[in-house]
Amino acid sequence: MDLFCVGCEIKEGWGNMIDPKFIRDNAEKVRKYLKDRKNNWDIDKFLALDEERRKIIFEVEELKKSKNIASKKIGDLIKEKKDPALAKDEVNKITAAIKELDEKVASIEEEFRKMLDFIPNILHESVPVGTSEKDNKEVKKWGEIPKFSFKPRDHVELGEMTGILDLARAAKISGHGFPLYIGKGAKLERALINFMLDIHVNEHGYTEVFPPFIVNRESMRGTGQLPKFEEEMYKLDAEDSFLIPTAEVPLTNMLSGETIPEEALPKYFTAYTACFRREAGSYGKDTRGITRVHQFNKIELVKFVKPETSLVELEKLLADAEDILLRLELPYRVIELCTADISFAAHKCYDIELWAPGTGRWLEVSSCSVFSDFQARRANIKYQPADRNERSRFLHTLNGSGVALARLFIAIVENNQREDGSITIPGALVPYFGASEIKNGL
Known about the structure:
- This protein has 13 helices and 16 strands.
- With about 450 residues, it is an alpha+beta fold.
- The protein is about 40% helix and about 20% strand.
- Mean pLDDT is about 95; it is low at about 1-15.
- The strands form 4 sheets. Strands 1-9-10-11-14-8-7-2 form an 8-stranded mixed sheet. The protein has a 3-stranded antiparallel sheet with strand order 3-5-4. Strands 6-12-13 form a 3-stranded mixed sheet, with no helix packed on it.
- The protein starts with 19 loop residues before the first helix and ends with a strand.
- The radius of gyration is 27 Å and the shape is elongated.
- The protein has 2 domains: about 20-120, Serine-tRNA synthetase, tRNA binding domain (Helix Hairpins, Orthogonal Bundle), CATH 1.10.287.40; about 135-440, BirA Bifunctional Protein, domain 2 (2-Layer Sandwich).
- Helix 3 packs antiparallel against helix 4 (about 85-120).
């Protein structure tokens, strides 16, 4: 069964994430998805609203039929030169009843629409069922965990020894949770950005974009950040705009409201941007160093594809992100997220984690997701089949980090450290960095 039917009941302008008809016709299936996701979205309330809404709409249609009959009666009475006063009174009463019901259904539809804003995406049947992140499934591991003849330092200590990272001054400038790269640290960050963009553009077939770092509310809603996650975003109150949490937002919304010819698909875009996240609710977690920061750089990968190819495109997207880490010779693993840990908008998702020996744990550097038509419905992005007699359809979107800094920065310096605190630069990065090691950042 097609979980995302094209041409089903869609209220114009709502930007439904999930087709209400699908929810109504598959209530028990949706109930199970919500339970597996550990999500308390109230499907019973939604179904009750939906039933009441449709009942009132039916009543309005019946009243309109009665009004048409009464209106015709007025005309007939006038032709017969009879008094139409009673018939006019009947039309006025029906008109008043229709207005009252229209106002009632408008109120219900507003609540209905708000509920649709908060329902998470339907999961693909292959997503592992779990109750927490502990149930995520490791599907791949590459590289050897490095062994040192000395106790490995973390990136904070290495940053201080080489002068490439200055967190004290970063806190003075902006507060806790912001990085400040100095000298060769800044050069390493820039080298990584250029290295990744070149690979994705020249070898993986993405078109490079340099998008705005500020987006409007509708763009944030289009990709699923709003309204659910507003407290985690940096908002510019005067303009009702937001600093982007990821380039996924501007890249996906580039095509909002558009219909793409089938022959123009798939479309691949990549972009470097800074990313801004308040990390509300994460206080006390990963407070040392730059493991969790409010501003970080990232290379994003976004795809627009036909629905029947989206799962294959997810595997290709994952491979594109992995390729960066393979070239940098960093030990990593791929995790398939379970139902309780997958993101709000995702249909299926893989995380890639790098080993950081000084920090002593795996760090997520990429999340590669397929969203089915969840974002396309919100942002109204469709494609026109090659047969122009067929109706336009919602396409599928994907995105992934290709990959994210600052955790990539952490993994490089911690995996390639020497006992004296110097750092070896991976061979593939040397042409971009211009040196094979870091001994002093200045």
